[in-house]
Design a protein that fits this description.
Length: 95
């Protein structure tokens, strides 16, 4: 389920720096967002943890996430050195 490139996602500074492991979760899209939240390392509940980023910037700013961006809402991914995992998480559809 690809998104319009002008839609936004939430991404952490650590993911923008290319740190691993890289995590992503996709909630249902709404109001010009893709539903994606992408981070590296430990997840934080700090309200400023995720920064808005237009999808078209992902190619340059976090290319490791690109193979997963067309996954539909309710999916997650994890990328670490020598490891890649993709799985469905229906709980993401209810938030």
């Amino acid at each position: 389920m690809p998104s319009d490139e002008t839609y936004k996602l939430g991404i952490s500074d650590s993911a923008l720096r290319g740190e691993l492991p890289l995590n992503g979760v996709r909630h249902p899209p709404e109001s010009g967002t893709t539903g994606w939240f992408i981070w590296s390392g430990e997840l934080s509940d700090d309200p400023d943890f995720f920064k808005p980023l237009h999808l078209y910037h992902l190619q340059q700013d976090c290319p490791a996430a690109l193979p997963f961006i067309a996954l539909p809402p309710g999916w997650r991914f994890l990328v670490a050195p020598g490891h890649e995992d993709i799985w469905s998480d229906n709980a993401l559809l209810n938030t």
